[in-house]
Give the backbone structure.
Amino acid sequence: MAEIDNERPAPSNVTNFSVRDMTLYGRALRTLGAGASSMEEVAGRVVRFLYDNLLDEHGERACVLVRFFKTHPYGALDDDLQRIAGDMLGSVLPAPEMKSLVLLGTVGVEPEWNSRMTSKGHQAIPLPSEETINQIPMIGALVKQLGLTASTLVKPDPKLLLDMEQRTFNVFYISDAVDSPYIPAQKEFVAPYRVWSVLGFGGLLPSGEVFAVIMFLRVPVSRQTAELFATLSLNAKIALLPFDRTTFA
């Protein structure tokens, strides 16, 4: 183990990931909070680390896009994010405690995918009800596969938070994104960027907020490999914990 602890992770072929690779990557993720001033800063480091280090068999980046989301109360969002969330709700008046799924970190092959400020349609996704979550295919699948419930996002029960916060969560995994009902942007995103598999991990923070990292890859990822990524949720959480109450830079 000492040998692993002293070793720095190198970019790796994601299709041939091993337990050793995941141990090294987990160690690296745990350190990404050092010197940061906000969760947004850590989120940017997390997505950049995964984007730069997950490679295909030719040594090229395997990810087309990597994103980091976190739930956040509508009333605690800045004016711009409140406007974006409010516009998506239409005539529904948002309550201050309503949760929104906020994009905190993003990196990808297109210039506009490298800043949350220039993301279209994903900067702040309002979650006014459990029905809303279930009506958004990818978010509904994400919640279910991670082992969470829609109510955990919309209105977490304080009595259950401590137990759930200690859990190791599952992974979000779509083996073949082509024609998947959970990835609706087939013509605009999946086809032109040759997205093959989708992989994610996440968990619950002590505040009751949920974080999730989602990777869109142009290589096939097996279920066996995907399951290894479950351990990364705890490692990422360790880096995020000091900033549970300091979300934005």
